[in-house]
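I am still getting used to backbone structure tokens and would like to learn alongside you. To get us started, please write out a protein record for me. Once you have written the record down, we can walk along the chain together.
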Amino acid sequence: MQSLFQHAAITAGITVRVSVNFMPDQSRTGAGRWFWVYHIRIENGSDERVQLQKRHWRITDANGMVNIVDGEGVVGETPVLSPGDTHDYVSGCELTTNMGNMEGFYTFTRADGSPFEVRIPHFPLAAPAEQAR
């Protein structure tokens, strides 16, 4: 059985897993708009309590255009994860090309307030061939 999550990265005991799906019903390919939904699971495999503070995304389309997105938390939340905890969320990305990719990092803080970055794995955004036009 294939795992729900296709991409993963581990930093300092924190695992970030990503699953991405093209959404034809939310895309307007005739108008040059392709839309994907991605599901992220963050797993605290460390022995420390941590809190997600910020996100940094690098979104690149098929033309090489790069969009940097920085913000507080994820989908309006700054989750606290004790050892063994997980946090899941779903978000989306629209491009003006039928493919691209995303990657980035989260900034977490430890219980003592010290920040550290956790890598978000690189993952492709690709519309199926019949949706590429």
